[in-house]
Amino acid sequence: MRFNDGFWLLKGGVKPAFGLQVVQATPDNDGYNLHVSTKPIRHRGDTLAGPVLSIRVHSPTEGVIGVKINHFKHSDPTPNIALFPDDPPVPSVSLSKGEKEWSVTTGQLTAQITENPYTISFKSPTRTLTSAGYKHQAIYDVPYKWTLRSASNNSCLMTDFSSNPTPGTPPEFVRYVHSELNLSPGELIYGLGEQFGAFVKNGQSVSVWNQDGGTSSEQAYKCVPFYITNRNYGVFINHPGEVEVEVGSEKVSRVGVSVAGESLEYFIIYGEKPLDILERYTRITGRPALLPTWTFGLWLSTSFLTSYDEKTVSGFLQGMQDRNCPVRVFHLDCFWMKQYEWCSFTFDPDHFPDPKAYLAEIKRKYGVKICVWINPYVSQLSPIFQEAVEGGYLIKRKDGSPWQWDLWQPGLGVVDITNPKAKKWYADKLDALVDLGVDTFKTDFGERIPHANVVFHDGSDPIRMHNTYSVLYNELVFELLERRLGKGEAVVFARSATAGGQRFPVHWGGDCESTFEAMAETLRGGLSLTLSGFAFTSHDIGGFEGHPPPQIYHRWVAYGLFSSHSRLHGSMSYRVPWQYGEEAAEYMARFLNAKHRLMPYLYQLALQGNAVGHPMQRAMFLEFPEDRTTHYLDRQYMLGHSLLVAPVFVPSDEESEYYIPAGRWTSFFHPERTIVGPQWVKEIVPLDEIPVWVRPGTVLCLGPEGIGRPDYNFAENLEVYVFELSEGQVVNAEVPTGTDKDIAGIVTAECKRGEVIVKVTGDLNLTSVKLALGGRVHDGIKEGKEV
């Protein structure tokens, strides 16, 4: 929210009350409770009238300091973001008091508070990270007309009156709590969820408010009130409703954060390295779940508006098998149910007269898992709609009638996820599908949740529920699958999320066009998401809308198979490779085989994501924070610590460009080729290639050639490659079993006096160990012997 007219003046009618002076500071176990006046206090008379802000500065866990600003204090509204749902906090705090200042220290982070003027500076051992300076914290009363730019108020003004009764008289003013933090020269901001615009958020106004707007606008499906900087800290705004963030936009050297209401809380999260920040953030909001190995294989969809008949499906699965592109998950999109009836949770009998037998047959014949499309909406033409109305399972208007509209499905209602009986009713429908042989669900939608003139069963504030709904919806489905299939076997394919949603993966990027531009949008969105606490990300290979030209399809397949999760899906056209030329299947087979072989490495990354919140696909600056060039890169990424992936966004006759950081890097597909960075690379990349470079000092364990699936025993038949070790360097590669969190063994490589010694501990079966050095590959070594 923007309150100013330029830097000096306020917009007409805006009434501020700035926090100016600490008039009382009371310590407790983990911080200080401050009373901050909004006018200068010179004598007792100045204490009469006017707001006093109650501000709490405290540390909930090591390396994190929270600031909570309250105006009118009353019982906290619901829902709230769940804090520390998986790992407990790590208390570590010390307090100190000076003559006119107070300090809160936790680990290497200190908040220094001054009395008059009231300020807070956040410091590491070496510098001031950021600060809330004079007049940086305030409450504002804003004329209602100025608030209409906010996403939540704009969507109250929908012209489709079937969706909402005409709103009552709007208030004259809306109150906001606002806080600003300084932006230092050269400081960059990233994250805020899956944002498809510019990767670096400086200069942007971002509304943390989920909307169904595709990948080509400022709207986003997965808005997260967390941003990370290139200055050793991140900021988590602990608010589940709309959060408006001005990133150097209203005031070019500050980040302003505003929420409507009476309270705002944020946490400064310190990290010596960017990954440390994500580790602490996911401790607060939750770790990504560990996914089964089969989810990392190829997902194939029927597409959306296409034919799902048995002959077509069997032909696709057989064709993929015949072309060495084995499908691991087969997805049936919306029309597995009858048109106009979404959701009925019933297979269309005209196309699937015996769904249980049909699913069992394709699972047996093609070795696939089955995914079906669902959403949390119920059409009034669905045979279960009246059941939902009579049970009180839908979100209601204030007059007690179900909230309905005609967008997407006729007269649809939305399941009230806060009603325990509605949750059980919905879960029972999914239970029946699992009985038929369904293994996972594509949990689509969940963004267009009504918030004006509605009531929830548990009394939740509809504004706060709008984003939160996505987490509760996916949690319900994920936990149903855990209960039915076992812990470690659950996965959803979700579109909507917010803070905490990373606990219920996987999430894909939504509806993109079939263009190079949309492919780049998808990558920017995915990198922003993985900078917001999410370990996994996916997208519709080839794009969703339109029919991709073959060259775009080829490039997107390569990028998709070097993503954490890989799905072929479109809208009105299929994405099986032979639709784009038989050579497309050859290219896909090569990249899919590479992904299968990389599973010992990839699954270890998934274990790290579950343990400490590190993402699989990483923006370059996460791994190379000291290399300033990497801070702006958004068309390439690190797949874990060791692999640099540079998708190609141009046709085969144009040059692609990417950046190689310092050191001698080795081509994954052509180990005889090396590049010494730092340098920019310009090259024409053939359609059957994607630049993938192995970081120097890597031990990479590969599964057997042609294994044909992602779920196998990772400890058997391993090929070990050691890349460019420097003198004295010792590198370990842990090899997971692939069936749980256990490690089957460790491969250790050490360069000592010009020799490389490789040792193996644990129960590993190696077929070969090879040393890639200076563009040559040496092989034939044995455990404990020199290369």
From TrEMBL:
The organism's place on the tree of life at top rank: Eukaryota
Domain Glycosyl hydrolase family 31 C-terminal: 613-700
Stretches assigned to the Glycoside hydrolase family 31 TIM barrel domain: 288-605
Keyword annotations from UniProtKB, A to Z: Glycosidase, Hydrolase
InterPro entries assigned to the protein according to its UniProt record, in alphabetical order: Alpha-glycosidase_related, Gal_mutarotase_sf_dom, GH, Glyco_hydro_31_C, Glyco_hydro_31_N_dom, Glyco_hydro_31_TIM, Glyco_hydro_b
Matches recorded under Pfam families: Gal_mutarotas_2, Glyco_hydro_31_2nd, Glyco_hydro_31_3rd
Record domain Glycoside hydrolase family 31 N-terminal: where: 55-245
Similarity section: Belongs to the glycosyl hydrolase 31 family.
Database matches in NCBIfam families: PRK10658.1
Name of this protein: Glycoside hydrolase family 31 N-terminal domain-containing protein
Source organism per UniProt: Somion occarium
Organismal lineage: Eukaryota, Fungi, Dikarya, Basidiomycota, Agaricomycotina
